[in-house]
Amino acid sequence: MTQPSVKFGANANQSVVSLHTIGVLTGILDDAGLSSCLITSTSRTPADQARIMHNNIVRDGVVKQKKLYAAAGDAVIDEFVRGKKAGETKAQIIALMEARIRAIGPERVSHHCADPAVLNVVDVAPSSVKNKQAFESAVAAAKSQGTVSRFITPGQHDPAYHLEIPQPTI
Q: Which residues contact residue 4 at a Cβ distance below 8 angstroms, ignoring those fewer than 6 apart?
């Protein structure tokens, strides 16, 4: 089998994904016998996080989004609810959400907002994983080895495979 490839979706910022993370992912794909995967999301700015949370709330509802986030994220979702009740525009609501994210601390709201030099966070499209069981087993093995610190599978409130990969210290 040729070396597996990690592909990036249109909205995924490839520049923040380290060579270390690419190596971890290709190792996972190799262990799972898979040829490729598609990363759909990586590191986010507070503005990106607010926009994404807004769109997800509109699509999936407040209750579902509150299941995805901890208290810090819930506070941002509460800004959406307040803005809607006040009759704010979409842009105004997103601005309120972004301000709340910045006030709380972006990395406390979502690890997607963490410093990518310390932690790479990637979402992998489930549709790009041809053998889900093998992929999940390979990620679990990487997690037990410490190369992946957190792994969330689709259905655990997240639509994607969510992997958090600590970066080596120099």
A: 26, 29, 30, 34, 35, 36, 37
* Residue 73, token pair as written in the block: 């994220």
pLDDT tens sequence across 26-67: 999 999 999 999 999 999 999 999 999 999 999 989 998 998
**pLDDT tens digits for 63-99?**
989 988 899 999 999 999 999 999 999 999 999 999 9
Q: How far separated are the first and last CA of the chain, in Å rounded?
A: 33
**What Cα–Cα distance (Å) separates residue 47 from each residue in 3, 10, 78, 150?**
36, 18, 17, 24
Question: What Cα–Cα distance (Å) separates residue 32 from each residue in 7, 83, 137, 162, 170?
Answer: 17, 45, 8, 17, 30
How far apart are the C-alpha atoms of 147 and 130, rounded to whole Å? 22
d(Cα 153, Cα 65) in Å, to the nearest integer?
Answer: 16
Structure tokens at 147: 């190369």
Report the greatest alpha carbon distance in the chain.
57
Contact 123, 161 (CB under 8 A): yes
pTM of the full structure: 0.86
- Give me the percent of the chain exceeding a pLDDT of 70: 97
